[in-house]
Amino acid sequence: MTEEYRAAEHHGSAAVHHQQAMRYHREAATHYQVGKDYAHAAHMALVAHGHGWQAIDHGKQANTFYIDQDGKSATVPRFPSRSLEAMGKEQAELGCQAHHATAADHHEHAARQHDEASKHCGGKNYSLAARAAQMAHSHALQATFHSNEAAKHHAEHYGKSRPTAELT
Hints:
75% of the residues lie in helices and 0% in strands. It is mainly α.
């Protein structure tokens, strides 16, 4: 098995996990918005968070292919990355539903970027593949941030002070 095949496989696995995370975050958002089934929403969020971390792990495995023998990354233009703290200051007022919806959007973008990286890797255009992988990683980090914020919001607002599920 060639290294580029392994990298493309990891990109494909990362994309699948991002798609799963997106689906579960969207379901959690729906439960907060419509159903008020907080226990089920929290469960969906936990599953989404696990898929998100699996996606990040596969993305990191794929990225090892783009590191040359000297331990340097492929020549990839770096995008300025905002810190997670900066994102938190801008979006501190979002509720669970909004954080889950935003996390789902970022997972969707990350999945698309991993699909692109896989195609570029298969075409031996490693610079574009590494760039797409970097963009996917950036979206993955933002999705993780929103997932964490949704969990904090859930614990603060629906944790010990209220029942975890409302029955109507």
